[in-house]
Amino acid sequence: VSRVQTHPGKRGEYIAWRRDSVYPFMASHEGFLSSTLLEAKGEPDQYVIINKWANRQAQETYTAKPRETELRVEAREFLSQLATDALDGDVVNVHHAPPLAEQSAGS
After folding, report:
1. How confident is the model at residue 105 (pLDDT cuts 50, 70, 90)?
2. How many CA atoms lie within 13 A of 81 on its CB side?
3. Smallest Cα–Cα separation from 32: which of 15, 3, 2, 57?
4. Residues 24-56, buried b or exposed e (16+ Cβ, 10 A)?
5. pLDDT tens by residue, 59-97
6. Do the beta carbons of residue 52 and residue 35 sit within 8 Å?
7. How far is the CA of 44 from the CAs of 9, 51, 95, in angstroms?
8. What's the whole-model pTM score?
9. What is the DSSP-derived secondary structure letter of residue 65?
10. Helix (H, G, I), strand (E, B) or coil at 54
11. Which helix (DSSP H) or strand (DSSP E) does residue 93 occupy?
């Protein structure tokens, strides 16, 4: 989990760059589960990024790739503040809501 801040007026370009460059590269790596971008409420141009990996080794293998370093350099075009408040940890519990069809059937 980390926070970033885009340059004013770069929101759309940043989101497109993540969609077209970052996500496909992440998805090509074994152990990648998901990446979510959240807009921080009340903080213009601030975003929270939640990346999920199957394990720490998968994430470390990804970050060791030269292309990941290149992506960080590219990010400077869009970001006034690179990842801050980086947090990480190991999953200890997950709960998923049942599929919508099961929720409707139980009503």
Report:
1. low
2. 13
3. 57
4. eebeebeebeeeebeeeeeeebbbebebebeee
5. 999 999 999 999 999 999 999 977 665 667 776 767 777
6. yes
7. 10, 22, 31
8. 0.78
9. S
10. coil
11. none
